[in-house]
Specification:
Length: 184
């Protein structure tokens, strides 16, 4: 009985999350929304730009994380903020960097970027099944300033958060500084 009540509570929390009410557009031009799910282990939202060199450089890492954690019950979204890129440019980026499994959505009026306070690409946001934001910032500490990269990654921020969520470990919400291209 407690499990049923917890499920209903998580469903009601996620159903009332303002994040789910922000209109986005998929690659086919269809209106869509982020769907937080109490049945998933968490939701990962990447803000990406096809022209950003760091988004391009991080594409393999993004793909590896999506493959590893979607199998564990996480859901992923790639958000293209603004009106700067066409559907074809995004499809070329998606195909070139082999991100075919990742759903790409357009945020043409920057409503989602404003709501989350995203300002950089690549920048990542992680939401727990309850709808609570538990992390936002960088993927890891490989790029620590524009044009400056470490030879060895010492902090895997996104993977660490997903690992904790996967293991049902409590996470105190936190953020790190994302490095990359500004969202205009």
């Amino acid at each position: 009985m407690q499990a049923i009540l917890l499920f209903i509570q998580l469903f009601l929390i996620s159903a009332s999350n303002p994040l789910e009410k922000i209109p986005l557009t998929d690659l086919m031009g269809k209106l869509t929304y982020i769907q937080l799910s109490a049945a998933s282990k968490g939701t990962v939202i990447y803000f990406l730009s096809p022209e950003c060199p760091l988004c391009q450089s991080y594409s393999l890492t993004i793909k590896e994380i999506e493959i590893a954690y979607s199998k564990k019950g996480f859901q992923f979204y790639a958000i293209i903020p603004g009106k700067e890129f066409t559907k074809n440019e995004v499809i070329i980026f998606k195909n070139k960097y082999k991100l075919s499994a990742l759903p790409f959505l357009f945020d043409p009026n920057l409503a989602l970027a404003k709501y989350t306070k995203a300002s950089i690409t690549p920048e990542v946001f992680v939401y727990a099944p309850s709808g609570q934001k538990v992390y936002n910032g960088r993927i890891d500490n490989w790029a620590y300033e524009l044009s400056k990269k470490r030879t060895v990654i010492t902090e895997n921020d996104l993977r660490n958060v997903l690992k904790k969520l996967d293991q049902n470990v409590s996470i105190k919400p936190y953020q790190t500084k994302a490095v990359g291209c500004f969202i205009n």
